[in-house]
């Protein structure tokens, strides 16, 4: 069996969320001399893309997404033990937090997991994050994207406050701002002047990739919507 076929098997094992199969196939790939980066990106990464597509098409669901993420973590821990993850400098840098007054973190954590598995370096700011801290952490990390989650309608207004804060600091053109969470909508994102709105962890990854690749000035265009 050739290297390409082996990587396809790795991808399918990721889709299946089969950790034992992933470990076995990953070791076989290493024994065949396939580069660890190729195993992760062309095998595992390809599998995650399929998972993302199937999730958006409602062929897979949240438990499947979590199982595939766990399988991907097992693969990267096996083939890249020094890092335990995909190289996180290739895709971009993101700071991610749940806004002030909100203690919900499930959606945030899932999104961070998917971003990291897709090659992003992410600083998890946790929950109940004040507006100024988002900006301070973005400055320190050298982030391109500030991602904000809000699971309560009363806390979603802090997403607007952050954008206004960036304007007062003359930093709006430096950071893409994306928003999400239960009460958040594409219309709300447009109203507050965000750069993007995502409904799911998979759409969050898509947004970050598209915004960074676009090369557009943050705050200069209508928000991208990834359902």
TrEMBL record:
All copies of domain B12-binding, residue ranges: 91-218
Entry keyword set: Cobalt, Metal-binding
Record carries keyword Plastid: no
Span of domain B12-binding N-terminal: 1-91
GO cellular component: cytosol
BP GO terms, sorted: homocysteine metabolic process; tetrahydrofolate metabolic process
GO MF annotation: an example: metal ion binding
Database matches in InterPro entries: Cbl-bd_cap, Cobalamin-bd, Cobalamin-bd_sf, Met_Synthase/Corrinoid, Meth_synthase_dom
Family of the protein in this entry: Belongs to the methylamine corrinoid protein family.
UniProt-recorded name of the protein: Cobalamin-binding protein
Source organism (scientific name): Formimonas warabiya
